[in-house]
Design goal:
- The structure holds 3 protein chains of 3 kinds.
- Chain A has 9 helices and 21 strands.
- By secondary structure, chain A is α+β, with helices and mostly antiparallel strands.
- Chain A has 2 domains: about 230 residues, 3-Layer(aba) Sandwich (Rossmann fold); about 120 residues, Beta Barrel (OB fold (Dihydrolipoamide Acetyltransferase, E2P)), CATH 2.40.50.
- In chain A, helix 4 crosses helix 5.
- The longest helix of chain A has 18 residues.
- Chain A is elongated and about 75 Å long.
- By secondary structure, chain B is an all-alpha fold.
- The two termini of chain B are about 35 Å apart.
- Chain B has a domain of about 180 residues: MetI-like fold (Orthogonal Bundle), CATH 1.10.3720.
- Chain C has a two-stranded antiparallel ribbon.
- Chain C starts with a helix and ends with a helix.
- By secondary structure, chain C is mainly alpha-helical.
- Chain C has one domain: MetI-like (MetI-like fold), CATH 1.10.3720.
- Classes of the chains: A alpha+beta, B mainly alpha, C mainly alpha.
- Chains in contact: A-B, A-C, B-C.
- The interface between B and C is large, with 95 and 92 residues.
């Protein structure tokens, strides 16, 4: 069983500080939805409002179509996985996992059987009688998931649960979480500040900044078609140019900058004054001869080998610091330091975007 | 948390404060009642005469002075001994540490009656062994024995406070100082003790107030001398006048003044800290907007 | 020890060791050994000390069993030595004081640790500390005023019509003593529990709540187990302080209430028999230690957890 979640014009104020500002989201049943944003952007506040630890100051929250305002956390069909997991250190693993059943008056034999079943589901058989302190970080993670699943929630809420793990384990647990979500079909709402995590696991991502949801889209769209500068900058690297829009037509425009005038796609800039041109480093090309369009003469200042790609820093003749990335397919030619080259980019891969949608 | 339970918990906290403070208010109020017995009922009109009587009650003033002397002595000795003990405990380990630490902690739990009697017996017997019947100071009963008896457990309280502070001390600093050519005395004076000052200050205050509180140890060791506690105690048994309430009122006022000064200072520091944090938050928001985060 | 020599040099190390030795030997160990030794000697005139009559015996301890009194409990009447009876009641009422202190302090400790706004907490703490700074004798004296026959409590209760005639609070057995001890020592229960609950991760409480636990279940399964060392520490403090208190029972006691420390005081001050007083003091120390150890063992708390 899984349920959808709807937030309608949800606001949350702490005194004069507005942590969440008119959030509107519809999470579909069975979806893996991530809120992505820097610390303090309001994503955790949204999670705590859905789980019932905070009441919204304005707006409606529906779980499975039912308005849950006024319901306490223990009355909502949600289960929360805390950032620090919040496993109970004084209980053995199996009591941890079935605590939610214990408080519902389920008898001990049933609970024990349920614990063993869940431990198999999260791939931790035989850990039932251990104590929390005996487990590794990844194992604790699995116990926390099992504990949340034990109460058969319709929605799982995860508050950066992987942040305490090291890189390798984190990547492994991403796949694991995704698999568990698919297996159980429960709606997952996942909070993270790590764009890699959000893009890799989610069906859809909501990017947040300063209490506002900036964009909701699937991971590919978020990366390829960011709606504003904040989203573009938060989910990847960019070369940024400031300048003025000229001759907009059919979604394209010219953009006059001190480094030349470039053609690019035109984002939704209606009513926005701060507008910039964004080009991802991997969407640029470095050539000996000038490119067909959007070409800038540069001098290579630094080349760093990153493994799967090569990062190149260049200084344009007009004084702009630019970055290019060359995919390392084994045959790529590495530019020489100090070489005079031309950096160019496809007009369809460059976007003219407004700054972030900030609170007024 | 549920609204009703939240309000109930606020109410409970309030009632608890009333429970703690009301008796002190009643006691203070009786200092102004023109009634020979210390009470607020029946109210026979305002008077300041108990304060005048207090001023003329020489035995009480002497007892008060004694109390302050004893408390000051206890504070000084306890701080010295307790700090030394904390440093010792912090630099040893294993079985010796467990035993010593256990012994120090145990002193807090020994009933004051036991401490009082044992201190009294030991010092007078020691005097008897050394000098016969005519024992000189300090082998006679008196307030100096009260001081020693009180130190025996108050030092442990100071030790606990200093030890907690020592745990946050980076021993690398001492090594750095030694490496830079400081003498052992300088390491102690310039590096370790400054780090411990807050705990030592708190320890001195705790020792001072604990000493004023003390009755059990003093009762068995004081000989004929009075401290405030003993004096009030004897008065309660043998007919009391509101002069004691007058004194209690003055003491409470003094305590309140100290508390208010402390609170004002704390709020001032909190305000400074709040502005600093606001500044940091603005800086972070700026960074976020400009995309530099 | 090596470490200390290296850091502070031989001179300071020696000074530190001497200070600690002075404390533990001269102020704690030797006095207690003297007390113990003295408790086996008879009380003799000065000239006979060290004479033929001065030999070790259990006589002082046996005095506990002198003088039976007739008492009845739960309808059964029995004979019991008066001092044993006093000791028994001292322990019993100290336990009662400990229990009530726990019941009063736990909700407030939880409130301070988890509910109250952190910015108002320092003010609250300060207000709680004020009675602690006012000396014990004055706190007991305050209750002596309140509980007086013509005092404010009776006046208040009569005023709101709860009682018709004033009550003799300080002449109702141990009532006054228990009230006074609770007021005097409740804060010694509050602060250890507060410290213990404060160290509990609030996420633990929220996790339990999120998993569907009602509030009492959260306390029973999460908060109380976590606070156990603090509760044990507070209980041991309150119990030992109550059982060892002389001031409060003397000021607020009635003609029918006798505390064991008062018995010791009488041997020491009235009978001037220091040796028997020593024996009684040792009994108090020994049996209280045994009792506390037993309680710790029953509740599965280690002594090392307590001194945190």
């Amino acid at each position: 069983m899984s349920a959808g979640i709807d937030l309608e014009n949800v606001c949350c104020d702490f005194g004069s500080f507005r942590a969440v500002d008119h959030a509107n989201v519809s999470v579909r049943p069975g979806e893996f939805f991530s809120f992505l944003g820097p610390s303090g952007c309001g994503k955790t506040t949204i999670l705590r409002m859905v789980s019932g630890f905070i009441e919204p100051s304005r707006g409606v929250i529906r779980i499975g179509g039912k308005d849950v305002r006024g319901q306490r956390p223990n009355q909502r069909p949600t289960a929360l996985i805390f950032q620090n997991l919040a496993l109970f250190p004084l209980m053995p693993i199996w009591e941890n996992i079935t605590f939610g059943l214990e408080v519902r008056g389920v008898d001990k034999t049933t609970r024990r059987a349920k614990a063993d079943e869940l431990l198999r589901l999260v791939d931790l058989p035989g850990a039932a009688d251990k104590m929390v302190s005996q487990l590794s970080g990844g194992q604790k993670q699995r116990v926390a998931i099992a504990r949340a699943l034990a109460v058969e929630p319709q929605v799982m809420l995860l508050d950066e649960p992987l942040s305490a793990l090291d890189l390798k384990l984190r990547q492994h647990m991403r796949a694991e979480l995704r698999a568990i979500q698919k297996r159980t079909g429960v709606t997952f709402i996942y909070i993270t500040h790590d764009q890699g995590e959000a893009l890799a696991m989610s069906d859809r991502v909501g990017v947040m900044s300063q209490g506002r949801i900036q964009q909701i889209a699937d991971p590919r769209d978020i990366y390829n078609n960011p709606v504003n500068g904040f989203v573009a900058a938060f989910v990847g690297e960019n070369n940024v140019f400031t300048g003025d829009v000229q001759n907009p037509s059919q979604g394209m425009a010219s953009f006059a900058t001190p480094h030349g005038t470039f053609r690019a796609r035109l984002g939704d800039i209606a009513g926005q004054t701060n507008v910039k041109l964004y080009v991802r480093p991997e969407h640029t090309a470095l050539t000996k001869a000038p490119g067909p369009e959007n070409s800038i003469p540069v001098t290579i200042t630094e080349v760093s080998f990153e493994g799967n790609f090569i990062s190149v820093l260049a200084l344009s003749d007009s004084g702009a610091r630019l970055t290019a990335e060359i995919r390392n397919d084994g045959a790529a030619t590495v530019p020489e330091m100090g070489a005079k080259m031309h950096m160019s980019f496809d007009a369809a891969r460059a976007s003219i975007l407004p700054d972030a949608d900030v609170r007024s | 948390m549920h609204k009703l339970r939240l309000n109930l918990s606020h109410l409970y906290a309030l009632l608890f404060l009333v429970y703690l403070i009301a008796p002190l208010v009643v006691m203070s109020g009786a200092a102004f009642n023109d009634n020979k017995l210390p009470s607020i009922v029946p109210w026979k009109g305002w008077t300041g005469r108990w304060f005048v009587d207090l001023w003329h009650d020489e035995r009480m003033l002497l007892a008060f002075a004694n109390t302050l002397w004893v408390a000051a002595a206890v504070a000084v000795i306890s701080v010295v001994v307790g700090t030394a003990a904390a440093i010792l405990i912090n630099s040893i380990s294993g079985r010796v540490r467990t035993v010593l630490y256990g012994m120090m902690i145990a002193t807090i739990l020994i009933p004051g009656v036991v401490i009082g009697i044992s201190t009294m017996i030991m010092w007078t017997k020691l005097g008897g062994v050394l000098f016969g019947v005519d024992k000189p100071f300090p082998f006679i009963p008196g307030l100096h024995l009260s001081v020693l008896g009180q130190v025996s457990y108050i030092a442990a309280m100071v030790m606990l406070l200093v030890l907690a502070r020592l745990q946050s001390f980076d021993a690398g600093l001492e090594e750095a100082a030694l490496d830079l050519g400081a003498s052992h005395g300088q390491v102690m004076r310039r590096i370790l003790l400054p780090h411990l000052y807050p705990a030592i200050g708190a320890g001195a205050a705790v020792a001072f107030f604990q000493s004023i509180e003390n009755f059990n140890v003093t009762q068995f060791t004081r000989g004929g001398a009075d401290t405030l506690t003993v004096y009030v105690f004897s008065k309660v048994r043998s007919g009391i006048t509101p002069t004691i309430n007058a004194l209690a009122f003055l003491l409470i006022c003094f305590t309140l003044l100290l508390a208010a000064a402390y609170e004002i200072n704390r709020r001032r520091l909190a305000r400074i800290e709040a502005t600093r944090q606001a500044e940091a938050r603005r800086a972070e928001e700026m960074a976020e907007v400009t995309g530099l985060a | 020890m090596h470490d200390m020599m290296r850091r502070y040099g031989p001179g300071l190390t020696l000074l530190i060791c001497l200070l600690v030795a002075f404390w533990l030997l001269m102020l704690v160990i030797v006095p207690n050994i003297t007390l113990f030794e003295q408790s086996f000697r008879p009380y003799l005139p000065v000239v006979e000390v060290g004479g033929p009559k001065d030999f070790y015996s259990f006589d002082n301890y046996m005095k506990v069993f002198d003088g039976n009194v007739e008492k009845s409990l739960f309808g059964m009447s029995f004979e019991i030595p008066v001092h044993v009876y006093t000791f028994f009641l001292t322990i019993l009422y100290s336990m009662l004081v400990t229990l009530v202190c726990f019941a009063m302090a736990y909700p407030l400790a939880y409130y301070m640790a988890k509910i109250v706004n952190p910015t108002t907490l320092p003010t609250l703490l300060l207000m709680l500390f004020i009675p602690l700074w006012v000396s014990e004798v004055l706190r007991a004296f305050a209750w002596w005023i309140i509980l007086a026959f013509k005092g404010p409590l009776n006046a208040l209760l009569q005023g709101i019509g709860l009682i018709e005639d004033p009550i003799r609070w300080t002449n109702m057995g141990y009532t006054g003593v228990v009230i006074g001890l609770i007021y005097t020592y409740v804060l010694f229960m509050l602060f250890p529990i507060y410290n213990a609950i404060q160290s509990l991760d609030t996420n633990q409480i929220e996790a339990a709540e999120d998993l569907g636990a009602p509030w009492w279940k959260t306390h029973w399964r999460i908060v109380l187990p976590h606070a156990k060392p603090g509760i044990a520490s507070g209980s041991v403090m309150v119990f030992m302080l109550s059982a060892g208190s002389l001031l409060v029972p003397s000021i607020l006691g009635s003609t029918t209430s006798q505390w064991f420390t008062q018995t010791i005081d009488q041997w020491f001050k009235d009978a001037l028999d220091w040796n028997t007083a020593s024996a009684y003091a040792f009994i108090l120390l020994f049996l209280c230690t045994v009792f506390v150890s037993l309680a710790l063992w029953v509740f599965k708390v280690k002594l090392s957890d307590i001194a945190k």
